[in-house]
């Protein structure tokens, strides 16, 4: 299955295998040249600021051997160049081999319980950015203004509404600044789709 076909919840905090010409190119760009390189083994996690991220754990060679990435170094890849690559979740890998590196990543990129809760709200999935799961498209609604969408980074929830900071400028003047905190919820549209909305 290709990366763009997978839900972020399925791969988050999983060890995965990525294969394809682009992944080989990206690994070589890290100066990790290896003869017969065919795939990489990665730990996938969500960086709240930079989105879906892959930390290299090992290189897979065509002779079936693996080269373990030095644990004292960090080799990261972001989501965008890998969207069309083949991806496989490796459930049978001995995670103990990589425990120190994985534990460090989980601690560094740990988010609040509120943000964690919002990652499991499936009804806003259509509004999520495909590479940045904590970023959602929110429609601003205000009297005498046309509805306008902007990107908002979720920072929490108060159970009834979500809160987030504005990431993009609007064409109209909604009297909102970049990184200003807003509250927003969801609304069912005429076509029965669900959108995130902020009523100002």
Outline, from the CA principal axes?
Answer: elongated
Q: Number of helical segments?
A: 4
Radius of gyration: 20 Å
Overall structural class, as computed from helix and strand content, comes to: mainly beta
Structure description:
The protein has 200 residues and is mainly beta. 14% of the residues lie in helices and 36% in strands. It is built from four helices and eleven strands, in the order H-E-H-E-E-E-E-E-H-H-E-E-E-E-E. The protein has helices at 8-11, 21-29, 99-108, 113-118, and strands spanning 15-19, 37-47, 51-61, 66-68, 76-78, 86-89, 135-141, 148-157, 162-166, 181-188, 194-199. The strands form two sheets. Strands 1, 2, 3, 4, 5 and 6 form a six-stranded antiparallel β-sheet that branches. Strands 7-8-9-10-11 form a five-stranded mixed beta barrel. The longest helix is centred in the middle third of the chain and has 10 residues, at 99-108. The radius of gyration is 20 Å and the shape is elongated. The mean pLDDT is 92.
What are the key terms here?
200 residues; mainly beta; 6-stranded antiparallel beta sheet; 5-stranded mixed β-barrel; 14% helix; 36% strand; elongated
Secondary structure elements and pairings:
Elements (H helix, E strand, L loop, with lengths): L7 H4 L3 E5 L1 H9 L7 E11 L3 E11 L4 E3 L7 E3 L7 E4 L9 H10 L4 H6 L16 E7 L6 E10 L4 E5 L14 E8 L5 E6 L1
């Amino acid at each position: 299955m290709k990366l763009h076909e997978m839900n972020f919840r399925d791969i988050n905090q999983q060890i995965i295998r990525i294969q394809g010409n682009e992944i080989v190119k990206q690994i070589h760009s890290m100066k990790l040249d290896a003869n017969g390189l065919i795939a990489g083994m990665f730990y996938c996690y969500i960086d709240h600021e930079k989105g879906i991220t892959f930390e290299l754990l090992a290189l897979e060679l065509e002779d079936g051997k693996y080269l373990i990435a030095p644990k004292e170094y960090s080799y990261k890849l972001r989501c965008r160049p890998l969207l069309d690559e083949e991806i496989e979740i490796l459930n049978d890998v001995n995670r103990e081999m990589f425990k120190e590196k994985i534990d460090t990543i989980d601690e560094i990129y740990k988010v609040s319980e509120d943000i964690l809760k919002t990652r499991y709200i499936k009804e806003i999935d259509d509004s999520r950015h495909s590479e940045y799961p904590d970023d959602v498209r929110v429609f601003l609604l205000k009297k005498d203004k046309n509805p306008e969408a902007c990107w908002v980074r979720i920072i929490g929830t108060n159970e009834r509404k979500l809160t987030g900071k504005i990431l993009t400028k609007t064409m109209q003047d909604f009297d909102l600044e970049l990184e200003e905190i807003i509250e927003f919820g969801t609304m069912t549209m005429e076509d029965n789709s669900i959108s995130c909305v902020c009523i100002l």
